[in-house]
Queue: 2 jobs
Job 1
Amino acid sequence: MIIPFYGVWLLLITAVQSTVLKGIEILSVKPNLFLIFVLMIALLRGRKEGMIAGALFGLFLDISAGRLIGAYGILYLYMGFMVGIISERFISRAHFAFSLILTFVFTIMTEFVYFLLTLTVLSGADMGYSLLHIILPSAVYNTAAASVMYFLVLKSLKFIGGVKIDEY
Amino acid sequence: MRRFFKNKIAVTISVLTLILIVLAVILNSAAPNAPFVQNSVGVIITPVQHLFSGAQNGIRSFFSRFGDAAALSEENQSLNSEIASLRNEIRELQSVKDENTGLRKMLGLKEANPELELEAANLIATDPTNWYSTFTIDKGSKDGISINQAVINSDKYLVGRIYEVGTTWARVITLSDPEHSAGCVISRSRDPGVAECDSELASQRKCRISYLAQDADVIVGDYVETSGIGGIYPAGLQLGKIVEIHEETPSMSKYAIMEISADIDHLTQVFVVKNNPNALPDE
């Protein structure tokens, strides 16, 4: 059941991210469902699946964007690994508020590294502007979207009986 | 070394990193058309995006209504009195009217520019990240679309160019993308420059016209159009209107800020210029 689960989510997120979300942009920024999903999987399913989901979903985001293919793949692979370790070692159970904090922190981290990786592409990109007008608003928006995604991912995981950590 | 290979997590993370690096090398290498993996993903995802792109406009109008809650309430009451079937009929008629307007504009555009070979295309997806300004159209290599063809709107304003092509889809890089640049001229004085963008200007739907000569004859309100130099864009496509002019003291040149004419954020249909009348014939 877990492979169809990822297949459906991958198709849904890839389609929604580049269509419907344009309609709810705020200040030219939209939430990143790929990042939020990987983070939730790493929290709820542990580091191994977090890594695999990170590599797969990141790669699909790269292919959808058509630039620097592999950049988000590698970033989300390591994000899945790190969030998985945090989930397994430092918190006894997946915590809603904690997932929001992690979303905020990891959005800033991954988008900042992505910005550094793409400095050659984004000619004339200004770090201060990008931080204040793209990265920080993305982190806020992702955190808000994560508050909904958390329950959707949790519900769908419970539906297929795929929740590894018992207490929520 | 043996301990490393016994650690499953370390092996998994190393293998995945290696696979992604190999994929990155293959997929990022320059190719005239989208590589197999990207093309396959595009072919699979395009019909789903088509489905969702219809919902996009509905969601946008849904959220825009929160701006005026009081008016919305009144409007809602009056709308409730309408019969559901009548509303459906109006919606259908509106859709036909919009399509008719689009087709008339296309016909007008084709008649006014017989030298341009145009292919109408619908916008089905936008850029999934917050960094770039691209969109996907529902026409691809099977429709004769190829890389670097110019993309215009129904008013003949330049929107961008074809950046990547799949069998049934193509990706368009717009004027406001940080990677885009185009040779241009000031319409009135024919002074040349280069239109390019960065994230800050892109958010205001503006571009920078660089490399203008110190004595270039440019004033606020001047229109900017493609120069035709470079072989990608046909000459004479309007890019925008000058809104600011600045001096660059060290380089003894000046630059201008241009407002982009095409409404890139609200495009639903575009036209791909499949030929370039200014292109030099192949030797």
Job 2
Amino acid sequence: MRWFILAISLALLGILGFGLVWPLVTVARVSIIGAAGEITFETYGKVFGNAYFMRALVETVVFCLLTSALASFWALPLAWRIGRGQTGARTLRALSQINFAFAGIIYGMLMIVLMGNAGLLALLEAWLLGSEATRGLAFTAFGLAVCYLSFQIPRSALILAEAVAKIDPGLLDAARTLGGRGPAQAWLVVLPLLRPALVEATVFSFLLAMASFGPALLIARSITIFPALIYREFTGFLNFPNAAVMAVLMLVVALVLSALMRLAFGRPSWTETA
Amino acid sequence: MTITLEGIEKQFKDVPVLRGIDLSLAPGCVTALIGASGSGKTTLLNIIAGLVAPSAGRVLFNGQDVTPLDAADRRIGYVFQSFALFPHLSVLDNVAFGLRTRGVGRRERHARALVALERVRMAGYAGRRIDALSGGQRQRVALARALAPEPEILLLDEPLSALDPVLRDNIRDELREMLEPLDITTLIVTHDKADAFVLADRIVMLSGGRVLQEGTPRDLYDRPAHIEVASFFGAVNMLPEAGDGTGLDQAPVIFRPEDTGRAPSAAQADFTITIARRLYLGDRVRVRGLTSEGHELSVDLPKHTALREGEMLHLTLLKDGESAGTARAAGVRG
């Protein structure tokens, strides 16, 4: 048994080393190697000085933060039903898990089918009202947000459902006997107890959104999504140093923001928030 | 406040848990609801609290039907078996919770919560986290939290069962001291006879969802109306009434092992047994033996009594009270 554990531990280390650390080191190295092979931060300067890139990064971060926070709160009713084992919980859990089988680009396709120029929504609107206000809705910021939320909500719900299942039902009964009705129970007991899980779900959702570029490639027209920009620099313009710098930048921003969210909100409070 | 239960019934998925409970709890009285696991005592407590709706029957507080009211509207204090303290709040905020939900301002609710904590001698722990408290301290905080909104009814579900045996004895005495001056109608669910005897003025014994007997602790111990009540509260001997000849189901004489003593002589003995077994119980010895008619009896004797198995033991009933004779008069049902 000890040899088996040692063997799989070494294999895991190998996978981590070659599959994660080595590519990361390579990307970091490419980002600081100049044309003549010298170490330089010139490419960083170029990327930081490019207003288009910086605006795309800020827009991407803001967009991902907003959709992630919204997804976590929106997932709460679903998480509650799954976590408390209420009617339909098993079906809802299974449906939420299907989400993992879908690549981001499939979500983009679904949005086009639903809200594209010839999507279901536009056809219905034209048929019922004779107008075309929803034509091409998939290609707006709203369409992109709906697309992101559609894969963020089920994943957040599964994380939150675990935390919901751990809430002692006696606490809710205690709140009731102390005069706490539904809203008071939710505000004073459930949400504070779920706070660490809400932060964890938001961080997970944020990282997922930051890394997602499939939907952006298909439908992002009004917002420039940073990972799609990296993809374009890498495969379209073959500008490896630029792509490497942007990748390092995105990684650092995502990790720093995740750490800050956990630090600021991730701990359960034990003093009243009056 | 008087609590009246009229024909309370409860079924869970067609399984009857409570069957026609009629009870009246007097204002200011501490009542223990006792019974074995599954007897329906916690369900009954939760019905009074409004946490569970009865399948039939009514709950009245001071004659007013509160059956349709939710727990949030019944103004009761409830101490849960697990204490159910909010882990994300400090001790003070836990105790102030019931005042907060009723719209009491921060300063006032903290002042009142502090008073409640002083009452249970926990004021020095106001700023502590719940997970930094011992079991006994949590129990006191749970009591303070239930009392802070000044309820007229206090319900306690197995308040001592989460504590270890030594702590349990100490906290039981303290709890009695804390409950005495409150003068509010209190109902304690317990399966422990010591809790019921020490804490309660009256005891209601449930079995199979029915009330078997209601009365003072002495009533239930010394004058049990049912063999199940008698045996629940400790070891018990049963003998057919002399000359009755109708068998145990009719009118057995019951007495407890401690209700006997050694008779000075065979002529003065109420009965004689042949010792079959001698059990050391620490503070006394329990002797088991057979009467000449073949009935098995257990008797408690001082621990230094010299006895051997096979020896004849002449016994007399200690008629201080009321146990044997009254039990016979009450007509114990088997």
